[in-house]
Amino acid sequence: MKIAVGTKNPAKVHAVQEVFLKMKATIESVDVPSGVSSQPFSDEETVEGAVNRAKAALEVSNADLAFGLEGGVTETPGGLMLCNWGALVTPHEQVWLASGAKIVLPFEVASELRKGKELGEVMALLTDDHDIRKKEGAIGVFTAGRVTRKAMFLHIVELLYGQYEHQLKLWKH
Ligand SMILES: O=P(O)(O)OP(=O)(O)OP(=O)(O)OC[C@H]1O[C@@H](n2cnc3c(O)ncnc32)[C@H](O)[C@@H]1O
Ligand SMILES: [Mg+2]
């Protein structure tokens, strides 16, 4: 089985690799456009980015399954929240969706984003680590390392592949 993932970001690629570790699968990571702004600002825009990435990854790789994973933020009554979405697409044009855990961003971080800065930039300045988005990410920093960006995406990939497996079981009956 060949699986594609529409990003080169190791926090996302490693999440997919870990889920398929015990299966005979080859994972191909491909750099594809999200087709949305570099800092998505709603659940709708973030999920659209995930679907675009998955479809583009499938197209360039000819894989059996393709994942698109996208990070963004969304305004809520409790404040600006981190939001993450994943999409799984098949060559039969089926699409499954799943979202990740959400936390409210600290006010200072939220206000920088509302001024138009990207979360990646803000987090790089805050942590003095240019590559923080490829490592524990904002969610890791603000949860004292308990839930890293990879762990959060791993959960999304499990939710996606689990839905696909459930569908396969129904077809066999
Ligand atoms: O290479 P890609 O796959 O694009 O990986 P990315 O880190 O840019 O991730 P997204 O495009 O999905 O995220 C959209 C924006 O939010 C930033 N971002 C999202 N989650 C983050 C996190 O946990 N820590 C730091 N930056 C994050 C990211 O740098 C972008 O500016
Ligand atoms: Mg990006």
UniProtKB/TrEMBL annotation:
HAMAP family to which the protein is assigned, alphabetical: Non_canon_purine_NTPase_YjjX
Alphabetical keyword list: Hydrolase, Magnesium, Manganese, Metal-binding, Nucleotide metabolism, Nucleotide-binding
Cofactor: Mn(2+); Mg(2+)
Broadest EC class assigned to this enzyme: hydrolase
GO MF annotation: an example: ITPase activity
Reactions accelerated catalytically: ITP + H2O = IDP + phosphate + H(+); XTP + H2O = XDP + phosphate + H(+)
Residues covered by the Non-canonical purine NTP phosphatase/PRRC1 domain: 6-156
Provenance organism: Alkalihalobacillus alcalophilus ATCC 27647 = CGMCC 1.3604
Gene3D superfamilies in the record: 3.90.950.10
Protein function: Phosphatase that hydrolyzes non-canonical purine nucleotides such as XTP and ITP to their respective diphosphate derivatives. Probably excludes non-canonical purines from DNA/RNA precursor pool, thus preventing their incorporation into DNA/RNA and avoiding chromosomal lesions.
GO BP terms: nucleotide metabolic process
Protein name per UniProt: Probable inosine/xanthosine triphosphatase
Listed EC numbers: 3.6.1.73
Superkingdom per UniProt: Bacteria
Stated family: Belongs to the YjjX NTPase family.
Subunit: Homodimer.
Cofactor note: Binds 1 divalent metal cation per subunit; can use either Mg(2+) or Mn(2+).
A Pfam family hit: NTPase_I-T
